[in-house]
Every structure is written in structure tokens, then in C-alpha cells.
Amino acid sequence: MRNKFNDLKNYLSEIEKQGLYLAFSGGIDSTLLLYLCKDLKVTAVTLKSVFQPEAEINEAQRICRNYNIEHIVIEYFPLENEVLVNNPKDRCYHCKKIFFSKLKEIAKGNVVIDGTNFDDTKTYRPGLRALKELGIISPFVKFQITKEEIRNYAKECGIEIFDKPSSPCLATRFPYSETLTLEKLKMAEKAESIIKAAGFEANRFRIHNDIARIEIPIRDFGAFVKKSDLIEELKKCGDFKYITLDLEDLPSGSINK
Questions:
Q1: Tens digit of each residue's pLDDT (9 = 90 or more) over 203-244
Q2: N or C: which end of the chain has fewer CB within 10 A?
Q3: Other CB atoms closer than 10 Å to residue 135's CB: what's the count?
Q4: Which regions of the chain carry the CATH code 3.40.50.620?
Q5: Nearest to 243 by CA among 210, 200, 204, 212
């Protein structure tokens, strides 16, 4: 594993040129990449929209301040885009195409990198097509570095969020083709913040009309079912007939089912 990261660091130094622009979400993948670039000329760029929980934007800003990295936040309003509002199966492609096109304009010919990892190439990720079309470099993919390797190396480097759960965009909380609204997105964001505050940091609140499906790791099931008051609090987030607990372990991309 160390050889992979040594090769990666040498590669980043080679492509630095006038500067690197990193698509920075504040998740562990892009945070480790930021850490590896902190002694290079790098600018972090974060997308701020209703698809991203406010807490994630704040976290991204905090990390950049800690590393003293220049940070640009791009504000975008996806609900003004008819394609994104209609939430098609390839929504992620259209969203990433818009964001990374804006990022490339800011970069003005400099290299743009992102934190896509090698595991991401083995699942349904329509956004990868946008990255390829725009010539975005994904260093972890280039060196076949997996999510587990990223977490392990981040831990070795003393990065405090090495075990931070993934936080995909809020649009993934709804089935494809369901019209997205600000009210629905805020509903999912609020519910997940309530569950997190109750001690279950890794969670998804999937909404299927009047049914909510909660995803948490199997290890947390016992503690969760004892929180009877939590369900009553979650019911206040929307007009739900049922709130259910998904009996599978917290999966990645379950909406693709």
C-alpha cells in the first residue's frame, strides 16, 4: 500500500505545474487527496447546493482552514435545472458535468483532480462519464487505490476523519424519476441530522412517498430500536404513514435497486 501512495505523491508533484484544483467535498477521499497536496500549490473547490447538507459544506471549510488551503465555494441552484429536478437515472452525470465545467473555468487550464476511488469504478456511477469527457484526473483510480486503503492510510497520517461515513448527495434519498423539491430535500437532511444527533452517524433516510426507510449499520440495530422517542421525532419531519428500518447492512447505492 505504501508504494502506491509514494507513487501517487510523486505523480501529484509532476502534474502540479502552475497549480492543482481539487474538487473538495470534505469526505475522506478528497480530504486525503488534499492532505497529500498540502505542500503543493493546490486550490480546493467545493460545490454548495441544496443537494449537499449544510453540515458538509461547513466541514469542508473547516478542513481547508486547518490546512491553510485556499478554498473556493461555488454556489449552484440545481432545482432551476429541469433535468436535475426530474431526477433521471443519470442525474449524477448531468450534475457533475455542470459542476466540473464550472471548476474547469476557474482552473483556467490548470489540472483538475478529484477524489474518486478505485472501488467507485466497479459500481453504477454515471458521473464518471462526465469526468472522462471533461478530462478530470482521478489519482486514486489511476493508482488503483481502494476505499479501504484510503481509510487505512488516512489513519496512519493522523487524519481525524479517517472513518467518516460517506455522505452522497441528498438527491439519492429519492427514487429515480421522482420530482425533487426543496421541501423534500430539506426533509431528508433534517431527518438524517436527527438520527445522527441520536448517536447514529452513519445513516440514510430514504423517502418513498409516505414511507421512510432508514438505513444504518447492522451493529447499530439493537441500540436504534430502543430509541422509541426517535421515531416520533422523525415523524414530525414529514407526512409519513410508516417509518421502517431496512434490515440489510448500510449499503452503498441502494437506490439503484
A1: 999 999 999 999 999 999 999 999 988 999 999 999 999 999
A2: C
A3: 10
A4: 2-156
A5: 212
